[in-house]
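Colleagues,

For the teaching module next term, I've prepared a clean inverse folding example: a structure given as tokens, and then the sequence designed for it. I'd like students to try predicting residues themselves before seeing the answer, so please don't circulate the second half yet.
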């Protein structure tokens, strides 16, 4: 049996039924994903599943409201480094997606937006102060799409679009792409002292350049490209896109498994003193070819570079059909599994020059499974189950729902920076 459009819709419905409200979900005994205000790992992400189904006329709005109320119960958390995946920005992202008519949630969103503007401006001030002081190495959480300003930019682009605050975020990202000199050596402006985890590590004594969509420069590239496609530009915008693309050109690898990009580059690798891995890892959204290729396809569309677009689409198609790369993929999640790869393929196919990308999608869906009840139970079972958006059942269900209904109606996938 294959995963067709009907099976995809039924599977998403079965997951949604098992996560109908917080009380029902708690009875499943799921050990992961219970952070109330987490977009990635909690109630905010589950709310988005019910928001999308309600917008498509496939489920009741009450379920969405129940999860939103659960997420926002008590004080919504805010701190200096508030980010898209937790606290005020996460709740605002979900409320904006749920606002299906003008003025709905207006008072709450206005309050949350003021908080986001305040913390974002403070973050921008600190980032520019760092660069002004000649401190060359940012934390990944300063700029990435999970904890950084690229994630905040994704919300602003979806919520408020053409605003001064979004332009300020884009201006910062342009500056981030400017090379810096350290000990007589030019490094990319996003070179970080930290490990990919965002923490100091003896494994990275001279730092690294992170290439991922989750924690690296592919996220800023995608945001800059999407903004440009929406006719939102700042000074140096296209030059920044070209600088990041030139970096990816430098590190593009060729192998029997197809073209790919390393998840990160260490100082020794940058200097040519240490080789990169011989083969690509899983072709995921977070660090793999799916995320890398989609960000470059978006960049190509933004600047009108047909050759780059063809190369990105070819790399994506190869990665999503190569047995070795697919064999490295061990789960079904949005972040690093088959649901994320299928959703990226669908979005990329809508922009693609040829139908080749779309051909990949059915086999990716088949791995997820075709029996709605079996898939739903396995995604929401007590052993290892995660209700969340990024790595759990809600995210897989949303990707399947997009297969059934077409492009997301609520913009839930804006946090992925893939469209």
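(Answer key — instructors only)
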């Amino acid at each position: 049996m294959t995963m067709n459009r009907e099976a995809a819709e039924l599977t998403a419905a079965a997951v949604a039924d098992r996560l109908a409200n917080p009380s029902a979900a708690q009875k499943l005994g799921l050990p992961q994903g219970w952070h109330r205000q987490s977009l990635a790992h909690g109630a905010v992400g589950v709310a988005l599943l019910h928001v999308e189904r309600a917008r498509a006329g496939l489920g009741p709005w009450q379920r969405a409201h129940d999860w939103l109320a659960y997420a926002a119960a008590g004080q919504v958390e805010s701190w200096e480094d508030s980010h898209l995946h937790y606290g005020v920005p996460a709740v605002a992202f979900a409320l904006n997606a749920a606002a299906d008519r003008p003025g709905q949630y207006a008072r709450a969103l206005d309050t949350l937006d003021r908080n986001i503007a305040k913390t974002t401006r403070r973050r921008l001030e600190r980032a520019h102060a760092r660069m002004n002081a000649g401190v060359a190495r940012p934390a990944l959480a300063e700029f990435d799409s999970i904890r950084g300003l690229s994630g905040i930019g994704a919300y602003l682009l979806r919520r408020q679009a053409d605003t001064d605050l979004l332009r300020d975020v884009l201006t910062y990202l342009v500056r981030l792409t400017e090379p810096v000199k350290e000990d007589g050596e030019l490094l990319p402006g996003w070179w970080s002292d930290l490990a990919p985890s965002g923490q100091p590590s003896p494994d990275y004594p001279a730092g690294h350049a992170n290439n991922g969509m989750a924690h690296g420069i592919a996220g800023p590239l995608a945001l800059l490209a999407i903004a440009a496609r929406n006719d939102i530009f700042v000074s140096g915008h296209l030059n920044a896109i070209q600088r990041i693309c030139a970096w990816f050109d430098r590190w593009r690898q060729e192998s029997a498994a197809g073209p790919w990009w390393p998840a990160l580059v260490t100082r020794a690798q940058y200097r040519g003193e240490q080789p990169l891995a011989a083969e690509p890892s899983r072709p995921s959204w977070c660090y793999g070819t799916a995320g890398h290729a989609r960000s470059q396809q978006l960049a190509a569309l933004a600047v009108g570079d047909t050759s780059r677009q063809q190369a990105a689409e070819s790399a994506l198609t190869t990665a999503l059909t190569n047995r070795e790369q697919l064999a490295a993929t061990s789960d079904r999640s949005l972040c690093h599994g088959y649901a994320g790869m299928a959703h990226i393929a669908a979005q990329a196919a809508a922009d693609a020059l040829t139908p080749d990308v779309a051909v990949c999608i059915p086999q990716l869906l088949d791995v997820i499974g075709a029996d709605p009840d079996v898939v739903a139970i396995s995604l929401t079972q007590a052993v290892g189950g995660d209700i969340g958006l990024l790595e759990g059942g809600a995210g897989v269900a949303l990707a399947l729902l997009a297969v059934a209904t077409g492009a997301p109606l609520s913009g839930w996938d804006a946090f992925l920076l893939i469209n």
